[in-house]
């Protein structure tokens, strides 16, 4: 509701937050792969929970496709990829790197572009887990019969405000965002008629994939952690 009172041009991420990120957490990657399109800050750590956000474009438009992987336990970005590739090729890239981190995966299927990526990951039997909107898939021990009726992914536009709010809140509360490329996108990410979007000539591909990963981290992994802690408490009381 607050965004209804914001004028066009207001920054989604406050300037003071952007400056704090720039000073405290921005780092050059330890590795660059795929012609510099894929940046890696940390390799996978045993026992850590990872979430992968995927924003899909056609591969031949002005927008690029992007992948971001975050470490839920450490609260930091560990990998990102941005390039113009077809949706099925993007799925193969996501499969390779997502498997390395055993990352729980959320894909934007708004407008149908991400459906090809989602289906391809299913075809490849991706083992990290695929987020299904409004279905509890974060708990791998809990089977939900509704899962087979839906295409894995999230309709970004229907939850745009909530998803972007998760990003803004996370970075304000010291999530360690590492990427200079992503920080550049934040500088031109503003409210346009109350809607968070990039300025003309700017891009928000990495913002989209990062925001989805953070939203799912809050909506799914945080709840799963609470349930796990409650279960441990119950067992201890017994």
Structural key phrases:
six-stranded mixed beta sheet, three-stranded antiparallel beta sheet, 17% strand, alpha+beta
Outline the structure in words.
The chain is of the alpha+beta class and 238 residues long. It contains six helices and nine strands, in the order E-H-E-E-E-E-E-H-E-H-H-H-E-E-H. The strands form two sheets. The protein has a six-stranded mixed β-sheet. It has a three-stranded antiparallel β-sheet with strand order 1-8-9. Helix 1 packs antiparallel against helix 5 and helix 2 packs across helix 3 (115-123).
Task: Give the SSE layout.
Elements: E1 10-11, H1 15-24, E2 31-33, E3 38-40, E4 50-55, E5 65-71, E6 76-83, H2 87-101, E7 104-107, H3 115-123, H4 160-172, H5 180-187, E8 189-192, E9 195-198, H6 205-237
Parallel strand pairs: 4-7
Antiparallel strand pairs: 1-8, 2-3, 3-6, 4-5, 5-6, 8-9
Helix pairs in contact: 1-5, 2-3, 4-6
Count up the helices. Answer: 6
As a percent range, the share of helical residues equals: 25-40%
Strand content: 15-25%
Report the structural category: alpha+beta
- The whole-angstrom Rg is 17 Å
State the end-to-end CA separation: 45 Å
